[in-house]
Amino acid sequence: MILKSLRTYFNNALLGYYPDTEIQSFFNILSEHILKMNRVDISQNLYAVVSGKKYDKFQKAIDRLKNYEPIQYILGDTEFYGLKFNVNPSVLIPRPETEELVSWIIDCHSEPYDLAQDRLRKESEIKILDIGTGSGCIAIALAKNLPNAKVFALDVSGEALKIAKKNAINNEVDIEFIEANVLNFEHEFFFPFGKDVSQRQKGIFDIIVSNPPYVRELEKEAMSANVLDHEPHLALFVKDDDALLFYRKIAELSNGILKPNGSLYFEINESLGSSTKALLEENSYNNVELKMDIFEKDRMIKAIKNE
Ligand SMILES: C[S@@+](CC[C@H](N)C(=O)[O-])C[C@H]1O[C@@H](n2cnc3c(N)ncnc32)[C@H](O)[C@@H]1O
């Protein structure tokens, strides 16, 4: 089939499933991926023949799009903070609001620029723990942008960790992955040398970050089919009557393993900003700071552990 006819066929097949502009955008993204052709290439090669495996890939994509599968799962990868990440249905597709959280952390913790030496001043190593790492997007973007960081990343899902490990290799960063359930995780895990009280007081991590599950069951109704039917519910949902479960558990755990003055960062449910702030204050954190995303929704929070 020639490209021009393929485009018409693609548009007609998805008519009624998505708005016209989105169908165009899917076609362009798939052409880039399958044919290595951008929009200009397409317009200049309308009579090029697409056949065999390449044609089959378009057909498969149409079938999956009709099933409302996210385009990122169909392609098998996505971009986050300028880096490429493999994704499959065992990991949440990284979101732009999470890039804003990463950006906040990098802004607060980048090494200062040494004007006299005309280079970054080499600071001592900092340790970071990412809880609920999924695709590894937060951990890997931080490792890539904070060269003095040693990054650890934890998730309960072995399948998610397989993808995260692959992403760390592809992005050439060294991350220590931990398969564990944070809800019954003991901070002793990080103190292998037993009962050294002074070590415990010093803490381990400079930064702990988490984008934990935070969507309440009652919020399901407002979600689109491509999220609800295809992204992992383990990554998304919490019970209506205990929506801050992960925040409470991580705040308690972090009290045991953050260094004095260490920073705790969360992505949060936009409707639960003030209760998340109150929870952190009740857990003795200082300087609790809520921050909005570009859509002016409460989306992230930072807190400092007591000295
Ligand atoms: C909202 S997703 C965040 C994924 C990724 N960090 C991101 O920002 O795109 C939450 C992650 O927490 C993990 N998770 C859910 N319950 C967990 C638990 N009890 N212990 C550890 N991780 C858990 C899920 O597997 C999922 O990868």
Q: Explain this structure to me?
A:
- This protein is an alpha/beta fold.
- The protein folds into 2 domains: 3-67; 90-304, Vaccinia Virus protein VP39 (Rossmann fold), CATH 3.40.50.150.
- 41% of the residues lie in helices and 21% in strands.
- The chain has 13 helices and 13 strands.
- The strands form 4 sheets. The chain has a 7-stranded mixed β-sheet with strand order 7-6-5-8-11-13-12, with helices on both faces. Strands 1-2 form a two-stranded antiparallel sheet. A two-stranded antiparallel sheet has the order 3-4.
- Strand 3 (113-114) and strand 4 (119-120) form a beta hairpin.
- It is elongated, with a radius of gyration of 22 Å.
- The mean pLDDT is 93.
- Bound molecules: S-adenosylmethionine.
- Poorly predicted segments: none
Q: Ions, cofactors, ligands: which are bound?
A: S-adenosylmethionine
- Strand order in space, largest sheet: 7-6-5-8-11-13-12
**Largest sheet at a glance?**
7 strands, mixed
Mean pLDDT over the residues: 93
**Overall 3D geometry?**
elongated
Cα-based radius of gyration, to the nearest Å: 22 Å
Structural class determined from secondary elements: alpha/beta
CATH-defined superfamily of the largest domain:
Vaccinia Virus protein VP39
